[in-house]
Q: What sequence folds into this?
């Protein structure tokens, strides 16, 4: 039986929209609209935060285009193919992570890149997808909720790549990969008792983790606790970011009128701290609208996952959506001073490429999950 | 052994998933709410606080330096002005690699190592966003060359600003002085608020003395800057109040004539208007170009100035302490008359030397004229400068009375001129010698004081001042360089009232007149020591020549045959005032190692008097 042909796949389609062109190309319209809205917002604020440089907009546009194409391509691949490749993908990802440690290119004091001659590649990005896929593949094989032994094996499969990524060191990505894996376990129905137990163990280990951190990572945490300690050094980012957001007020200073960002006071205003630039110019109203867009995408992701037809896609879709939320939450939390500064961009809005492609690939999978459903008896 | 295989229960798994999804939804909604609360706190509750911080971030109040007041001479000739010049500025914060930038700049523009040293010193004490001058006075070619390459240098820029300039150069350097960059040890003494935008301050001369008048009041400009401190736009502000212009009593023309008359000699001349104490001329040779100091002098050039045996930086008029020699004789003669020690008939038989009564060594105190002057009374003693007469007079007066009387005129005291750093000279007395040398006063020392030698020291300024007091017949005016202050906005001129220090009450005013008559005869009689300058003079001059012995060279001076020969020669002095009855000008000059006062010093004074009286 061939599943790849969408026309064969939905013999008795009579639901509204099922015949539309978009559906035939496996595009989920609500998700697409949500993502497009956020992308447009990105270009608008980037124009302002990037000193009105069209070159920047152009390059971000190209990246968004590439990312949307990757999403559309992935949407065409039926979930069961994805499921079949999962162990191989995971294995390749692990090997690549090891190779990064051995042969990796370092940049800015961190070893994250693998130079493949024609392009440079970040295996940790691959793991953002491979880890939740692997756990979902592994757990969906048996009845849920999983037994303790399977949970422990799953945890092992999560922590090996996470530790490798953290070694690079790339704390932000390690956090996201870890969350993606653990969310699968969570969604698989692990008992609350176990959840609390594991949380307790992690909390108890936290002081020991402190000693494994790099100096700059420790500094970030200390700065988070008291940014005013070092207002011109590590605390500068967070202080200027808070000033930008706070001075924006309810309605903002207006597009292109944010003094914090236009006059260079806000560092990294087109990348990790773009949310502050947005909040300064568009105020609380704009920020709530942006959060609403993100929440809409998350809701749609959960809806798709809840309507998935098998355990693998359901777990995978759920985990990817939840990770997306973590992405948004950690970035905004860091920019508003709720969380320590972890180098995570604001998804789809921050200027920069690699993570955007991975992110859109995960939305491609969500679309694939939704549009490749077989119509069961309803 | 039983093998339990869990059967996949899809409905249960879906329910489980949905349960978890809902749990996640609730948690994420709570977290979102948390974020929104935080945003509400930042953007609504603390909005004002952060707006203040944001405003403080971008707005800076920048001090605007006032324009420094101009300095004119008595005829309105500019002595100090502000000229536009191009300055190369660097904002250290915006320069990534300072060493590389400096190296690249040096390929385009000449920058001395001293420029760099001064620059680095200022960089250390300035905030990193402020621009620091690296080179001043860029010429047009350098400006053009930099302009073409400007894109290569972030944080480097050219600014047109006003720089102090002294058009007369070295001619009035010791009066006008110069401004220089504010040094670290001056910082605590200045009002930092008022000097916020200023980087120059008066260092010497009038520039230093009248700093408060010349500087003006700082203005303020509110500007919007970016995070690097670069100015984005100007907002409101208050403009600075420019410094006031000042007019000096100095006559630039007299300065020039005196300087020319000095020729190759190291010399000093001070001319005073007796009635007011106005300092008409204050000239030293050699001198220096004050323009070199304005923006930091090159150490090599500075070393050349300080190492020169001729000491161009030395303000001889105020700090050169010379024995007055015979120029002190009219004053001692007057002392003799006033104390009643002598009268006009009192005479000595001058045989070319004098022997002190009771001196068992029988040391001969020699007269400059070996043959002697013969029978000599006071008038002849002044006119022909008979030393023996004054040995005798000194012996009769005693050091106490001499010191007291000279003190009345101001010998040994600062004149109070409005230039810093004046020395007081030395009016020796028994007390002085006991206190400073720990020795008793010897009678022989009284004798040589009588001819203006020994411990007695005067500055050229003091000589001019006591001459002016003599010309005034006892009215003592404080020497003043400042004539008037001009408001630069209204142009209103406020003249300074001359300060009268004292009027010497003479027992008999005729004593003064007779001494002045003798001084007139020095110039206008057949045997007067300065008769050369009196022959063709259209007005009458009263004067006195002087020749001061130079005792030897200092040990640490370099041995240079021609120099030393010159240095061993006597100093030539002349004091005088004219016209005799209605004095307009009193002059004192010292020509170092010049030889005889009558032949060398007096003609210089005559030229200056001519220029002033006959103009």
A:
């Amino acid at each position: 039986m061939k599943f790849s042909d969408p026309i064969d796949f939905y013999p008795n389609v009579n639901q509204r929209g099922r015949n539309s062109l978009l559906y035939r190309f496996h595009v989920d319209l609500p998700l697409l609209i949500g993502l497009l809205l956020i992308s447009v917002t990105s270009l608008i604020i980037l124009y302002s935060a990037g000193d009105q440089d069209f070159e920047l907009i152009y390059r971000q546009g190209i990246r968004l285009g590439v990312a949307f194409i990757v999403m559309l391509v992935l949407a065409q691949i039926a979930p069961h193919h994805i499921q079949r490749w999962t162990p191989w993908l995971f294995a390749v990802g692990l090997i690549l992570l090891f190779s990064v440690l051995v042969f990796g290119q370092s940049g800015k004091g961190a070893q994250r890149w693998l130079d493949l001659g024609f392009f440079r590649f970040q295996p940790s990005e691959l793991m953002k997808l491979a880890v939740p896929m692997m756990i979902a593949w592994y757990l969906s094989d048996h009845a849920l909720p999983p037994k303790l032994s399977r949970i422990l094996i799953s945890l092992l499969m999560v922590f090996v790549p996470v530790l490798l990524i953290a070694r690079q060191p790339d704390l932000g990505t390690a956090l996201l990969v870890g969350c993606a894996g653990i969310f699968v376990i969570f969604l698989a129905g692990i008992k609350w008792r176990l959840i609390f137990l594991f949380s307790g163990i992690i909390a108890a280990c936290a002081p020991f983790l402190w000693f494994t951190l790099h100096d700059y990572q420790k500094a970030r945490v200390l700065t988070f606790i008291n940014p005013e300690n070092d207002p011109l050094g590590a605390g500068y980012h967070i202080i200027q970011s808070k000033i930008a957001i706070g001075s924006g007020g309810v309605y903002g200073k207006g597009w292109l009128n944010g003094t914090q960002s236009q006059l260079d006071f806000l560092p990294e205003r087109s990348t990790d701290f773009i949310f502050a630039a947005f909040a300064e110019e568009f105020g609380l109203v704009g920020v709530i609208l942006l959060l609403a867009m993100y929440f809409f995408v998350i809701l749609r992701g959960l809806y798709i996952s809840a309507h998935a037809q098998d355990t693998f896609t359901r777990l995978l879709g759920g985990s990817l959506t939840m990770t997306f939320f973590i992405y948004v939450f950690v970035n905004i939390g860091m920019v508003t001073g709720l969380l320590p500064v972890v180098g995570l961009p604001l998804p789809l809005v921050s200027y920069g490429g690699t993570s955007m492609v991975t992110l859109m690939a995960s939305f491609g999978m969500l679309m694939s999950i939704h549009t490749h459903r077989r119509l069961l008896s309803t | 052994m039983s093998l339990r295989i869990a059967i996949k229960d899809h409905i249960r798994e879906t329910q489980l998933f949905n349960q978890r999804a809902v749990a996640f939804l609730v948690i994420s909604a709570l977290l979102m709410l948390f974020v929104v609360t935080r945003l509400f706190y930042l953007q609504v509750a603390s909005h004002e606080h952060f707006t203040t911080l944001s405003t403080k971030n971008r707005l800076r109040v920048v001090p605007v330096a006032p324009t420094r007041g101009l300095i004119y001479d008595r005829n309105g000739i500019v002595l100090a002005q502000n000229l536009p010049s191009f300055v190369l500025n660097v904002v250290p914060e915006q320069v990534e690699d300072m060493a590389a930038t400096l190296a690249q700049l040096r390929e385009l523009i000449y920058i001395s190592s001293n420029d760099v040293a001064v620059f680095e010193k200022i960089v250390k004490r300035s905030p990193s966003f402020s621009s620091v001058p690296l080179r001043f006075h860029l010429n047009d070619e350098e400006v053009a060359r930099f302009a073409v390459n400007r894109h290569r240098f972030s944080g480097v820029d050219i600014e047109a600003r006003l720089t102090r300039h002294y058009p007369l150069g070295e001619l009035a350097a010791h009066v006008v002085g110069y401004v220089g960059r504010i040094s670290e040890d001056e910082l605590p003494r200045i009002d930092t608020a008022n000097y916020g935008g200023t980087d120059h301050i008066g260092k010497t001369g009038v520039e230093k003395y009248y700093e408060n008048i010349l500087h003006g009041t700082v203005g303020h400009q509110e500007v919007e800057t970016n995070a690097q401190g670069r100015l984005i736009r100007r907002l409101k502000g208050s403009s600075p109040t420019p410094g006031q212009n000042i007019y000096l009593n100095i006559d630039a023309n007299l300065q020039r004539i005196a300087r020319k008359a000095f020729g190759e000699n190291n010399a000093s001349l001070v001319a005073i208007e007796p009635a007011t104490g106005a300092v008409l001329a204050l000239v030293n040779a050699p001198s220096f170009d004050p323009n070199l100091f304005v923006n930091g002098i090159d150490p090599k050039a500075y070393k050349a100035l300080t190492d020169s045996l001729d000491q161009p930086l030395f303000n001889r008029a105020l700090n050169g302490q010379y024995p007055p020699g015979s120029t002190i004789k009219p004053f001692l003669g007057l002392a003799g008359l006033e104390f009643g020690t002598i009268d006009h008939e009192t005479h000595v038989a001058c045989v070319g030397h004098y022997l002190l009564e009771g001196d068992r060594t029988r040391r001969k105190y020699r007269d400059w004229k070996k043959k002697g002057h013969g029978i000599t009374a006071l008038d002849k003693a002044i006119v022909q400068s008979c030393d023996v007469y004054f040995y005798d007079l000194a012996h009769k007066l005693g050091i106490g009375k001499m010191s007291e009387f000279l003190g009345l005129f101001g010998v040994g005291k600062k004149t109070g001129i409005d230039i810093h750093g004046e020395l007081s000279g030395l009016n020796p007395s028994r007390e002085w010698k006991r206190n400073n040398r720990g020795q008793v006063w010897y009678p022989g020392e009284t004798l040589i004081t009588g001819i203006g030698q020994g411990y007695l020291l005067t500055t050229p300024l003091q000589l001019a001042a006591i001459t002016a007091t003599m010309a005034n017949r006892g009215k003592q005016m404080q020497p003043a360089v400042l004539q008037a202050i001009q408001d630069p906005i209204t142009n209103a001129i406020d003249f300074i009232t001359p300060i009268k220090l004292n009027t010497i009450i003479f027992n008999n005013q005729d004593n003064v007149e007779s001494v002045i008559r003798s001084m007139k005869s020095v110039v206008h009689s057949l045997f007067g020591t300065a008769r050369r300058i009196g022959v063709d003079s259209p007005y009458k001059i009263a004067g006195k020549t002087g020749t001061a012995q130079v005792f030897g060279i200092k040990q640490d001076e370099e041995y240079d045959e021609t120099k030393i020969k010159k240095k061993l020669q006597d100093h030539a002095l002349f004091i005088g005032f004219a016209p005799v009855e209605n004095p307009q000008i009193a002059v004192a000059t010292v020509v170092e190692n010049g030889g005889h006062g009558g032949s060398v010093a007096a003609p210089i004074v005559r030229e200056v008097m001519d220029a002033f009286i006959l103009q």
